[in-house]
Amino acid sequence: MELDAIWLGLLVAAAFAGFVDAVAGGGGMIQVPALFAALPRESPAALFGTNKLASIFGTMNAARRYVREVDMAWGIAIPVAVSAFVFSFFGAATVAWLPKEVVRPLVLWLLVAVAIYTWMKPDFGRQAQAPRVPSRYLLAAAVLVGVVLGFYDGFFGPGAGSFMIFAFVRLFGMDFLHASATAKIVNAATNAGALLLFAPQGHVLWALGLGMAVCNIAGAQIGSRLAIRHGSGFVRAVFLAMTTLLIAKIGWDTLFA
């Protein structure tokens, strides 16, 4: 009975994570702590691998809906996704030897900067604008964004979706809806890259991960539908809410972990 209650709690967490992630990123902030709290005896690698398995189905499902209903900037999405896929594998490979305590304070301050910048610019991301990167450098900028965020997502993860959305709005002039749609493509690629490392090494709880994947898909369906229906203003509001919660969580972990 106790095990059933644990699994039920994780399935509910996965559904909520899928919903949040489909709108504005940040699903890992819900799903990863839930896994660690519910299964303290499992290795961190197994829990991270299970999270990636559950997440990839939700992100792919949300990406499929966005692709059908949103005009995608494929010239940016594809190079970011390809480079992110490759470097998320390397990011996952460094988990064992690079201490996350070094990364956490930097991520905290970056998230604070992202939140302040977005709050102070009410029109930021509400409408598409011309890219701020010169056209001859767009491909290079897209690849660089994929390298940095792909490595980060494979290695650490929390806030990766928020950083992706912010980068797509700030550098490439997307509105929040299109930035979120593009982030889902890239997120699916980073999850796949990390799984290539975790799965062959046996760091995935397959039965639990697949069950969570079904719930993640259900949440992603609802989240992507609401984002498309209500547009960039809705995505921006959820983005700011999730960024604020990420700041609170990572700040707590930095001070008290």
Briefly, what is this?
With 257 residues, this protein is an all-alpha fold. It is built from 9 helices and no strands. It has one domain.
Task: Give the tally of β-strands.
Answer: 0
The helix/strand class is mainly alpha
Low-confidence stretches: none
Percent range for β-strand residues:
under 5%
Number of domains: 1
| Proportion of residues in helical segments | over 70%
Search tags:
257 residues; globular; 80% helix; 9 helices; single chain; mainly alpha
Verbal overview:
There is one protein chain. 52% of the residues are buried. Helix content is 80%, strand content 0%. The protein is mostly helical and 257 residues long. The model has no long low-confidence stretch (mean pLDDT 88). The chain is globular. The chain has one domain.
How are the SSEs placed, and which strands pair?
Layout: H1 2-24, H2 28-38, H3 44-69, H4 74-93, H5 100-120, H6 138-155, H7 160-172, H8 176-198, H9 206-256
